[in-house]
Amino acid sequence: MRTKGIFFPNGQEGFKKVFETFYPRLLRFANAYVGDRFEAENILQDVFLKLWEKWEALPPDMNLQAYLLTMVKNQCMDFLRHRQVVEQNTIGLETAHFHEASFNYHAISRFDPELMDIEALERLVEKAIDNLPGQCRKVFEYSRYDGLKYKEIAGRMGISVKTVETHISHALKILRVALKDLFWVWFFYLITTTGIIVA
To answer: What is the distance of C-alpha 129 from the center of its chain?
Structure first.
């Protein structure tokens, strides 16, 4: 089996190689949308279990990366649909978490794995992040790379939670303009905390 020029042998050896090759990126992908590493890991566990069940029957020339991304995408969409329902039924209001789940759901629904080049997108996103203003970039990197919550970022940088929210919102607006038509594609790579809304 090949994908992006990589050969994966059949059997357990091939499956192990696929797991080691794709798991880290798929975890980032899932976590970016669901905003919960534990839930993202659960999604990946289910995806790779299903992959193993079908492993020997998969055609050798299939686009395995797109296949895995599609599986993760569908699982994330199910999770986000459920989160929206829970938020509305529990609180009765459209909270920040509800808006985030709704926004993420819309973003991932627009994502087409067949057109996706993860490595190229990562390079593009990293360049855009590097061009953010100083403190805005630092706040965004704490959220994006370290997965810190707003309160944790505020404490580490000695600023208010409101200021953190402002920096995150500003960063997203800048990145949306910088990446233009890739907005719905790059979004999965960026958001790793809750409460982020692009106005």
So the answer is: 16
CA distance 72 to 78: 10
Over residues 3-49, the pLDDT tens digits come to 544 556 667 888 898 999 889 888 887 877 787 889 899 999 999 99
Residue 192, pLDDT above cutoff 60:
no
Q: Which residues contact 31 (CB under 8 A, 6 or more apart)?
A: 37, 40, 147, 192
The whole-angstrom distance between residue 123's C-alpha and the CA centroid of its chain comes to 15
State the Cα angle at 12 between 66 and 70, rounded to 5°. Answer: 15
Output DSSP code: residue 145. Answer: T
Could you tell me which residue, 98 or 142, shows the higher pLDDT? 142
Closest by CA position to 197, among listed 130, 102, 122, 91: 102
pLDDT digits (tens, 9 = 90+) for 150-184: 899 999 999 999 999 899 888 878 877 777 656 55
Which residue carries 């958001």 as its tokens?
A: 191
The alpha carbon of 146 is separated from its chain's Cα centroid by a whole number of angstroms, namely: 14
- Class of residue 30 by CB neighbours under 10 A (exposed 0-12, middle 13-18, buried 19+): buried
If you ran DSSP here, which 8-state letter would residue 95 be given? -
